[in-house]
Amino acid sequence: xxxxxxxxxxxxxxxxxxxxxxxxxxxxxxxxxxxxxxxxxxxxxxxxxxxxxxxxxxxxxxxxxxxxxxxxxxxxxxxxxxxxxxxxxxxxxx
Length: 94
Known about the structure:
Blueprint lengths: L3 H6 L19 E2 L4 E2 L6 H18 L34
Antiparallel strand pairs: 1-2
């Protein structure tokens, strides 16, 4: 159902489509699943792919992709991100 050329033209095929439920590497469908979209994907799938890429880039640069905390935004007291509470962190004095 998919063609190797689509992987290069449609990088969003790397993620599942939230709109039609197509699995990764499968083309999106329209009209209740009766037609395959051969030239594009749903906008929600493109957005999901973009969010995944952004998350991976954040992780690779030392941040947290889950809560989107960049490396320079990490807690100075403990080095943690926004996923955790920081009530007990000791902040350095300026």
